[in-house]
Design a protein that fits this description.
- The complex is a heterodimer of chains A (621) and B (188).
- Chain A folds into three domains: 9-235 and 317-392, Nucleotidyltransferase, domain 5, CATH 3.30.420.40; 399-509, Substrate Binding Domain Of DNAk, Chain A, domain 1 (Sandwich), CATH 2.60.34.10; 526-609, Substrate Binding Domain Of Dnak, Chain:A, Domain 2 (Up-down Bundle).
- Chain A is 37% helix and 24% strand.
- In chain A, the strands form seven sheets. In chain A, strands 1, 2, 3, 4, 11 and 12 form a six-stranded mixed sheet that branches.
- The radius of gyration of chain A is 26 Å and the shape is globular.
- By secondary structure, chain B is an all-alpha fold.
- In chain B, 68% of the residues lie in helices and 0% in strands.
- Chain B has helices at 20-23, 34-48, 58-79, 81-91, 106-124, 128-155, 159-187.
- In chain B, helix 2 (34-48) packs antiparallel against helix 3, helix 4 (81-91) packs parallel to helix 6 and helix 5 (106-124) runs antiparallel to helix 6 (128-155).
- Chain B starts with 19 loop residues before the first helix and ends with a helix.
- Classes of the chains: A alpha+beta (621), B mainly alpha (188).
Chain lengths: 621, 188
């Protein structure tokens, strides 16, 4: 992998500084952090030398908590307060989570996203995930010896808007600057693609602890273009454990177990599953809290048999993704396996059979996502890499709105390349109508009740007109993280009532601030100092960016314009070392505003540069 | 929205509001060099994509998202023959009236009904082979209509007739979507 840092000649005035950025794989079962160091993507280990942080958080009554191995070790002793596989609850309501009866938690049915009652208080899945991210952030900052500029956090490609928003909120809560939410299979493709300098169509089959993704990508001349993606955000290794667990109950004639025994047997189920990767049978021996002995033997064949339909549930989205990409199986050059669950021999066999080729497994399926995310983070942080590559990803599920009769109308179809926007015009239904209700949905089904409700908002202040006269344009914008924002505007009257909507499940900025304050009280962390530091880091980055832009494209500006920007930069520099966050923030905003026309000119230059040499006359021959 | 602070010296060569053919510097015609479009698309995105701007100022980030969105929209529009035909007609000031003009030739409508019945039968009988035959037929008919549209738009400039062809193509697009749904349904 040729990812050497080459310092840019124009920037030699300030010593070239490597900006610390990481890629984080926030997994259902395990989480990892990686970074690009000396041009090579590496996973960062903890003090004991292990790379994998179990995604387990235990809340104790005294307000303290345990994360990772320590929490995992006591999960059967304290199952209600030890949260495992929290990723399954991100952006999910209680009714979305299928098998809650089998889970040992005390759920709180809160609108939008469920919460969990623990000894340490009621926690949202966002808070639990933030605890995992904090540990990884600390690990990275200690290992790299400085504050992080930002992080790329990976999400399953098939995550919807609610799940993505929740992930981003968790990162913010953990004090991370999110450079990008990156789809897990795409991250894996980066790690593989850059390593092997591959060209052609690749399929990434990603079966993790709790989610399944399939992505079809075309790699060509440094462009990673996702053609189609599909999956199941509630299917993974956990379900294989669950099957074994149910089989144990059946074999041992057990029913109505206590929460501790449930967790105990689930842990044994998982161990048995892992043993069956290399062995033909696994012995499951456990003593339940009532003293009953469970002692059963599970053979590989029985295991294959009981999980056949789980495998079938991965093959259906796979076929669908290929159809959406408009490709046949024989056009797929290689199949990349990602996620610990792809270690199961029956998974590898099924994939090989369908694609008629041996899947690629030369990178560790547990680490490949984090490695790819780190490579992307390095580029996004502005560290130059020798390879100039580009990533074009898609939105996994269609976005639409509710129309008459509880039907959805698709506005942005699935597999549209992001960022993307679509505007739709609406009109009033009654004379003098001054408000309109808009319900935003995500999903492929025709009925509103079968799709996920993302946001419901009212557009008010429409000037009274006869029915059908008003023209309300609603714009859906999906950014490069795959996150949606909606705005609406009345066109005829010139009355610009433009609004931006944050989906209903998302946390407001105030809520995040409050949560940050609460958690800070626990950790005795100095909130204000942190906020000041973050503001200073942001200001320095901006100064550096503008300085680089001036070096590169200063000739686009006349002397006055340059002086105006320089003056604004001085303003930021002057306030930078102060003790107060607010004036720095204002100066940063002012500088951002002052550079807007310059940014415009630079963009024009880039675009014309891209088209240079493509004269219309050349094309007509 | 923004107060203009100063003027910049170079006039923009391409701006966001220009039509897609200009943005991709391709001739304004229905027949199109797909390889050139793909290449232009990648070149443009490598300049404007948000990933290239994430370490820069908010102003540059915002512009980058607008540009990348516009380039994606242009690519989707030009790459798809039906969208491209519709878009060319819009540029010529002709409305394709797909929502309100339902006056289709009788033989075309009869043909559509026949295919739709065939589709229902194939679904009911879970007959993948019949679905394949139908998909093939729809593809061929689509190709014929696209050839007709190319003629009308690029050679004879019969824009009103071209709008009629676009409406027919929309029928076939819907049929193709239903066939795709049927494949999904038979698969599950």
């Amino acid at each position: 992998m040729a990812l050497l840092q080459i310092s840019e000649p124009g920037l030699s005035a300030a010593p070239h500084q490597h900006r610390l950025a990481v890629g984080i794989d926030l997994g259902t079962t395990n989480s990892l952090v990686a970074t690009v160091r000396n041009g090579i993507s590496v996973v960062l280990n903890d003090d004991e030398g292990s790379a994998l942080l179990p995604s387990v958080v235990r809340y104790l009554a005294d307000g303290s908590l345990q994360v990772g191995m320590a929490a995992q070790a006591v999960q059967s002793e304290d199952p209600q307060n030890t949260i495992v596989s929290v990723k399954r609850f991100m952006g999910r309501g209680l009714k979305d989570v299928g098998d809650v009866v089998d889970l040992p938690y005390r759920f709180v049915d809160t609108p939008g996203m469920l919460q969990l009652r623990t000894a340490g208080g009621v926690k949202s899945p966002v808070e639990v995930s933030a605890e995992i991210l904090k540990v990884l952030r600390d690990r990275a900052e200690r290992s790299l010896g400085g504050e992080l500029v930002g992080a790329v956090i990976t999400v399953p490609a098939y995550f919807d808007d609610a799940q993505r928003q929740a992930t981003k909120d968790a990162a913010k809560l953990a004090g991370l600057n999110v450079l990008r939410l990156l789809n897990e299979p795409t991250a894996a493709a980066i790690a593989y693609g850059l390593d092997n300098a591959s060209e052609g169509v690749y399929a990434v089959y990603d079966l993790g602890g709790g989610t399944f993704d399939i992505s079809i990508l075309r790699l060509s001349k440094g462009v990673f273009e996702v053609l189609a993606t599909n999956g199941d955000s509630a299917l993974g290794g956990d379900d294989f454990d669950q099957r074994i667990y149910c089989w144990i109950l059946e074999q041992a004639g057990l029913s109505q177990l206590g929460v501790n025994d449930v967790r105990l047997l689930l842990t044994h189920a998982r161990t048995a599953k892992e043993q069956l990767t290399d062995n033909l049978q696994a012995q499951i021996t456990a003593v339940l809290s009532g003293g009953e002995l469970v002692d059963v033997t599970l053979t590989r064949d029985t295991f294959y048999d009981m999980t056949k339909n789980l495998l079938a549930r991965t093959m259906q989205p796979t076929r669908k993704a290929l159809r959406d990409a408009g490709l046949g199986v024989d056009e797929v050059q290689g199949v990349v396996m990602v996620g610990g669950s792809t270690r199961m021999p029956q998974v590898q066999r099924a994939v090989a059979e369908y694609f008629k080729q041996t899947p690629l497994t030369n990178l560790d399926p547990d680490k490949v996502v984090a490695l790819g995310a780190a490579i992307q983070a390095n580029v996004l942080a502005g560290n130059r890499s020798a390879d100039d590559w580009l990533l074009l990803d898609v939105i996994p599920l269609s976005l639409g709105i509710e129309t008459m009769g509880g039907l959805t109308e698709k506005i942005i179809p699935r597999n549209s390349t992001i960022p993307t926007a679509r505007a739709q015009e609406f009109t009033t239904y009654k004379d003098g109508q001054t408000a309109m209700s808009i319900h935003v949905m995500q999903g492929e089904r025709e009925l509103v009740s079968d799709c996920r409700s993302l946001a419901q908002f009212e557009l008010r202040g429409i000037p009274p007109m006869v029915a059908g006269a008003a023209r309300i344009r609603v714009t859906f914008q999906v950014d490069a993280d795959g996150l949606l924002s909606v705005s609406a505007r009345e066109m005829i009257s010139g009355h610009e009532s433009s609004i931006a909507v944050k989906p209903s499940y998302g946390l407001s900025d105030e809520e995040i601030t409050q949560m940050l304050k609460d958690s800070a009280q626990h950790a005795k962390d100095d909130m204000q100092a942190r906020a000041l530091r973050e503001q200073q880091v942001e200001a320095r980055q901006l100064l550096e960016a503008v300085e680089a832009a001036l070096q590169e494209d200063g000739d686009l500006l006349d002397a006055d314009a340059k002086a105006a920007i320089r003056a604004s930069m001085e303003g930021v520099r002057f306030l930078l070392e102060g003790e107060d966050q607010t004036p720095i923030k204002r100066a940063v905003e002012a500088l951002n505003q002052a550079t807007l026309p310059f940014a415009q000119a630079r963009m024009d230059k880039s675009v014309s540069g891209a088209l240079k040499g493509h004269k219309m006359s050349d094309l007509e021959s | 929205m923004w107060r203009k602070l100063y003027s910049v010296m170079s006039a923009p060569a391409v701006d966001l509001q220009q039509d897609f053919f200009t943005i991709f510097s391709l001739p304004r015609s229905f027949l199109l060099d797909n390889a050139a479009l793909d290449q232009r698309y990648r070149e443009l995105q490598s300049q404007v994509h948000p990933d290239k701007f994430s370490h820069l100022s908010d102003a540059e980030k915002r512009l980058s998202m607008q540009w990348a969105t516009r380039v994606n929209e242009g690519y989707q529009t030009l790459r798809d023959p039906l969208k491209r035909g519709r878009y060319l007609l819009t540029l010529h000031g002709v409305d394709t009236q797909e929502e309100n003009n339902t006056a289709m030739p009788m033989d075309f409508l009869m043909q559509q009904m026949e295919w739709r019945e065939g589709l229902q039968d194939a679904i009911a009988a879970k007959d993948i082979d019949a679905l394949d035959v139908l998909a093939d037929t729809a593809r061929n008919e689509t190709r014929n209509l696209q050839q007709q549209l190319a003629e009308q738009l690029d050679t004879t400039h019969e824009f009103v007739a071209a709008a009629g062809t676009v409406r027919k193509l929309r029928f076939l697009e819907k049929l193709a979507e239903e066939i795709a749904d049927a494949y999904d349904e038979l698969d599950s």
